[in-house]
Amino acid sequence: MLQNRTIVLFNTMTPSASPSNPTAASGRPGKRASSARALQKGLHTKQTIIDAALGLAEQIGLEGLSIGMLAEVTRMSKSGVFAHFGSREELQISVIREYYQRFSNEVFSPAMNAPRGLPRVRALFANWMQRVAIEIQSGCIFISGAVEFDDRPGLVRDALANSVKTWLTAMHRAVVQAKQEGHLVSDADEAQMAFEIHGLILALHYEARFLKNPGAIERANTGFENILLRYGKSAARSVNPKPSAEGPASPPKQDGVI
Predict the structure, then answer these.
(1) 18 in helix, strand or coil?
(2) The model scores a pTM over 0.90
(3) What tens digit of pLDDT does each residue of 178-215 get?
(4) Do 145 and 62 contact (CB within 8 A), yes or no?
(5) Which ranges constitute the DSSP H helices of the chain?
(6) Which DSSP state fits 164?
(7) Are 170 and 108 in contact (CB under 8 A)?
(8) Which of 91, 95, 94 has the alpha carbon at shortest distance from 54?
(9) How many CB atoms lie within 10 A of CB 89?
């Protein structure tokens, strides 16, 4: 005699994401949000390491940087610091990138608010001098790096050289525009003028930071005015920077590994 049987079927399939199943539908967005937070945390940690590395490099140079030293300063493990860069060389290049970005933001970008011509050249030099006034105490990565890597081919040297060349190209372009605007004498040598401005900054670093000579900043400013006396037209030499109608400009782009 057949007995009554009740058969129960268990559904072992994973619930599909559908409007009638909001719990399942919310699974993936939750994972994406978690991944986004992890990525943001990783970027923040890497930036913290770069900030610490830049502070050290300004004092002891790029060559003095080490994974172990940064691990101690940031209170991280060596493996944790290493995971963000992969090598000491990549760490050094990241520091150069950060330094260049800050330099561009403080020196180049604000000067683009000044009109083309000598007002912009003046603004670039004035901003550069403000930066140097700080670096006399903290040090300049471009200058110390040139001493460390001038005869050492490689990616770190390339990164340094590309950064400096990019900035000097921007200064040269501003001088060329000054001549185009009629602010310089017709036979002015734009490359020579830009070279002399750069020379003032290098001399200032040497005189003020290394030799500790008083009055070095004033002498650099006097040297800049003498350059304008030689190359600038009398009507344009006294023009001070005023806001430009061109709008904000992007910082000069770097080529190569930077």
Answers:
(1) strand
(2) no
(3) 999 999 999 999 999 999 999 999 999 999 999 999 99
(4) yes
(5) 22-25, 27-60, 67-74, 78-85, 88-103, 109-111, 118-138, 141-149, 155-180, 190-204, 216-231, 234-237
(6) H
(7) yes
(8) 95
(9) 13
